[in-house]
């Protein structure tokens, strides 16, 4: 599987967001859009009213790090999301009828790709029953919420387990990704590398992206 690179705009300059997107999109495969609500994770980014103004020629992966993500599916789909990734951890209270499987089906039925993400404290066994419903799994290699954190090497085993469980579609990793940690993840079976500060903080963003395209 070809390694794809997905710059995370969480580390971009929001004051000139489309200029920042233009500086990387010619060299990357997709863009990673982190949506945070200050509840599910201890930070706030932006919602669909801002996201809809992002202009890009590459697919846009929207990572919903929010409580009750199903309330916002339509907003982000209409704003141009190529993939919606939701967290397993938000479905514990039974508020959404049918739980995680039903939510993933709703995304797929809308005609875009469905993804599921797990935080560092969540085992891959928690998503074993939805592997056939997802196009992409996002393994968080830091605690979600802030950019620039250190990579958690013990998360690599999750990638290996997912491949051993027979999952053959996209496995994405996000958190502390650079040329060294990216290689470790690719060797374990990941094929999408999400990187924020490593790319947007680089003097040569093209070179940073190319160093991840292992």
Describe the structure in your own words:
- With 214 residues, this protein is an alpha/beta fold.
- The chain has one domain (4-212): Alpha-Beta Barrel (TIM Barrel).
- 27% of the residues lie in helices and 19% in strands.
- The chain has 8 helices and 8 strands, in the order βαβαβαβαββαβαβαα.
- The protein has helices at 17-22, 48-51, 73-78, 99-109, 156-164, 179-188, 197-200, 205-212, and strands at residues 4-7, 31-36, 60-65, 83-87, 113-118, 136-140, 170-174, 192-195.
- It has an 8-stranded parallel β-sheet.
- The longest helix is centred in the middle third of the chain and has 11 residues, at 99-109.
- It is globular.
- The N and C termini lie close together (10 Å).
- The model has no long low-confidence stretch (mean pLDDT 94).
């Amino acid at each position: 599987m070809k390694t794809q690179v997905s710059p995370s705009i969480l580390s971009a300059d929001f004051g000139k967001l489309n200029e920042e997107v233009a500086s990387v999109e010619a060299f990357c495969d997709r863009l990673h859009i982190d949506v945070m609500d200050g509840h599910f994770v201890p930070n706030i980014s932006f919602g669909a009213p801002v996201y809809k103004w992002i202009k890009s020629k590459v697919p846009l992966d929207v990572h919903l790090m929010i409580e009750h993500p199903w309330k916002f599916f339509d907003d982000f789909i209409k704003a141009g999301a190529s993939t919606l990734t939701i967290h397993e951890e938000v479905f514990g209270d039974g508020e959404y009828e049918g739980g995680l499987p039903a939510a993933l089906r709703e995304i797929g039925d809308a005609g875009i790709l469905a993804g599921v993400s797990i935080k560092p404290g969540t085992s891959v066994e928690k998503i074993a029953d939805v592997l056939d419903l997802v196009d992409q799994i996002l393994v968080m290699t830091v605690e979600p919420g802030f950019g620039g954190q250190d990579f958690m090497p013990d998360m690599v085993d999750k990638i290996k387990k997912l491949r051993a469980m027979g999952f053959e579609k996209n496995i994405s990793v996000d958190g502390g990704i650079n040329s060294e940690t990216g290689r470790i993840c690719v060797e374990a079976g990941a094929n999408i590398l999400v990187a924020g500060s490593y790319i947007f903080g680089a003097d040569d963003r093209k070179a940073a992206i190319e160093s991840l395209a292992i």
